[in-house]
């Protein structure tokens, strides 16, 4: 009996951990072939590949991001190979199971919730041509009607074989994100989250966990993302794992964790700030809302004061990148309340703020009580809300405009100096900057066309000319700094029209070759090397200064970027033209 497991990932770099657990648990009794695709792959190509495997049993791991495309593949495949048994599993089909059996007649079985034991038991019954009434955790049709067997007892995770030792995975470890779990379950009961449905937290064998991590690092894994819902729920366990990863790290490896910030113990943060190398860890923190009344409505316990302490202490330590999540559309969180939530979180000044929209997931408490708040939402995945009693669709559209420019101008870190200046000195708040710019972006139709890096600078200039023309001199100076800092090589054609004429640039470089001490820290280089590796431009203010004050027009500044192609590094210097005694010819 040939069994193939498949899924459609969001991108090639993602891997499906669930399929690997099923494979490791089912083998060697039932050899499993894994075939992974992306949601952008043409359905016919996927079907052709799966057909070439000639499976007797074909399983799919289903999520909100792939269910629609997966259904197309299933329907097409069943037409050409109707004898193949089709099995679904995963969070998207584990709830409202009867609906899926009725709406996708091509599906033969659904593995409900945790699948390792159920799937292996199902394969045993299929191979032995036996009945399915005894397979706990299985749903199927009996006499043409949905039959859902009783739930299976939770698996003892310490008995689960490693899903990371397959030879076919090793060659791609360095190119893909490796998803890793040390526990299952969540101690919280947030009404919008599927993780809240499983009561309690279970752990894998810590020794086997550590052995797998060493194996993955030794075989080239570069990004290991822990999918534990609350990695730091047990202080001693988290501290032990952090210590292990610090002591056994390999060059270039990054570990990502989902943590609950308000329960993070100060001594753990102190340990990380003292011992963790910079860039080794990334924390993803679900804030969702800073409105206590909103959190109470979704049964979410959150101490914002303690959360603030954790986030700011980690930020000040400078070792760990933080990614904070927000959800727009929670019960009774209107537009103004969400604006406050956004500004509360953005005030932390951390690296990434993820703005998402509430999804009414099947099986969650919030979906079951949607009528209480007049929720309107999509009938199909991703079940995103379209409005409720306090948030209109127009307001959702506006917040989506914020999301668009937030990703481009903050989370991608193309213009940190510029954005910080604008949100602190020009616009009323961070949210107002992103909202006004996002609305302007949408009205120009830019969300429907592509863009190059240079386009992002020019579009921000266009927006500021209308929204805040008084801020242009400082903003443009900072934008030049942002642009040059992120270049690894001397730019041939920057996004702005460089008014620094060749003769004047030559004078500047000649002066600096002879008198490098005129700029503090400027290296002693020949005029030839400076011409080869230096870029000079004028700015209205000194963008490296803390004051950012405008000076009289005859006191413009020079921004000088030195590029080291061997080290792929860039050093930026600034000085007034007057200090170099270089002025335009009359």
UniProtKB/TrEMBL annotation:
Name by which UniProt lists this protein: Radical SAM protein
Q: Which InterPro entries match?
A: BchE-like, Cobalamin-bd, Cobalamin-bd_sf, DUF4080, Elp3/MiaA/NifB-like_rSAM, Methyltransferase_Class_B, rSAM, rSAM_horseshoe
Q: Required cofactors, per record? A: [4Fe-4S] cluster
Report the residue ranges that make up the B12-binding domain in this protein: 1-133
Q: Which organism is it from?
A: Fictibacillus phosphorivorans
Q: Which GO terms describe its cellular component?
A: cytosol
Q: Where is the Radical SAM core domain?
A: 172-403
Q: Tell me which Pfam families the record gives.
A: B12-binding (PF02310), DUF4080 (PF13311), Radical_SAM (PF04055)
The protein's UniProt keywords, in alphabetical order, are: Iron, Iron-sulfur, Metal-binding, S-adenosyl-L-methionine
């Amino acid at each position: 009996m040939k069994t193939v497991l498949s899924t459609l990932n969001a991108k090639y770099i993602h891997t499906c951990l669930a399929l690997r657990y099923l494979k490791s648990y089912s083998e060697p009794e039932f050899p499993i072939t894994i075939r992974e695709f992306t949601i952008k792959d043409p359905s016919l190509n996927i079907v052709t590949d799966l057909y070439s495997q000639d499976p007797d049993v074909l399983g799919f791991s289903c999520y909100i991001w792939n269910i629609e495309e997966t259904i197309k593949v299933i329907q097409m495949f069943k037409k050409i190979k109707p004898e193949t048994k089709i099995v679904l599993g995963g969070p998207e089909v584990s709830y409202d199971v009867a609906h899926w059996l009725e709406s996708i007649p091509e599906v033969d079985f659904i593995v409900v919730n945790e699948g390792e034991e159920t799937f292996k038991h199902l394969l045993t019954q299929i191979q032995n041509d036996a009945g399915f009434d005894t397979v706990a955790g299985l749903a199927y049709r009996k006499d043409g009607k949905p039959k859902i067997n009783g739930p299976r007892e939770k698996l003892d995770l310490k008995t689960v074989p490693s899903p990371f030792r397959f030879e076919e995975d090793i060659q791609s470890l360095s190119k893909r994100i490796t998803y890793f779990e040390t526990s299952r379950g969540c101690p919280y009961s947030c009404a919008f989250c599927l993780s809240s449905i499983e009561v309690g937290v279970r752990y894998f064998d810590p020794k086997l966990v550590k052995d797998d991590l060493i194996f993955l690092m030794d075989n080239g894994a570069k990004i290991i993302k822990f999918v534990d819902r609350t990695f730091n729920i047990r202080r001693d366990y988290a501290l032990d794992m952090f210590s292990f990863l610090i002591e056994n790290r390999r060059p270039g490896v990054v570990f990502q964790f989902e943590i609950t910030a308000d329960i993070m113990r100060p001594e753990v943060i102190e340990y990380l700030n003292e011992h963790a190398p910079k860039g080794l860890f990334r924390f993803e923190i679900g804030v969702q809302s800073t409105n206590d009344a909103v959190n109470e409505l979704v049964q979410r316990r959150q101490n914002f004061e303690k959360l603030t302490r954790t986030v700011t202490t980690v930020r000040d330590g400078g070792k760990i990148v933080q990614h904070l999540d927000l959800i727009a559309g929670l019960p009774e969180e209107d537009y103004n309340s969400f604006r406050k939530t956004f500004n509360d979180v953005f005030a932390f000044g951390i690296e990434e703020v993820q703005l998402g929209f509430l999804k009414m997931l099947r099986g969650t408490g919030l979906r079951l009580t949607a009528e209480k708040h007049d929720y309107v939402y999509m009938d199909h995945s991703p079940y995103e809300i379209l409005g409720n009693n306090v948030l209109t669709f127009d307001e959702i559209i506006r917040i989506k405009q914020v999301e668009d420019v937030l990703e481009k101008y903050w989370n991608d870190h193309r213009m940190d100096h510029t954005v910080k200046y604008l949100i602190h000195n020009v616009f009323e708040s961070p949210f107002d900057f992103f909202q006004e710019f996002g609305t302007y972006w949408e009205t120009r139709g830019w969300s429907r066309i592509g863009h190059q890096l240079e386009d992002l600078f020019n579009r921000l200039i266009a927006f500021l000319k209308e929204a805040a023309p008084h801020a242009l001199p400082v903003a443009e100076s900072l934008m030049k700094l942002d642009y040059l800092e992120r270049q690894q090589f001397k730019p041939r054609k920057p996004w702005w029209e460089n008014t620094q004429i060749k003769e004047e640039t030559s004078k500047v470089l000649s002066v600096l070759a002879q008198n490098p001490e005129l700029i503090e820290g400027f290296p002693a280089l020949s005029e030839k090397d400076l011409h080869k590796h230096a870029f000079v431009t004028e700015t209205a203010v000194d963008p490296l200064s803390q004051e950012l004050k405008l000076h009289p027009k005859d006191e413009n500044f020079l921004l000088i970027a030195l590029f080291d192609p061997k080290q792929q590094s860039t050093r930026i210097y600034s000085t007034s033209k007057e200090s170099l005694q270089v002025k335009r010819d009359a």
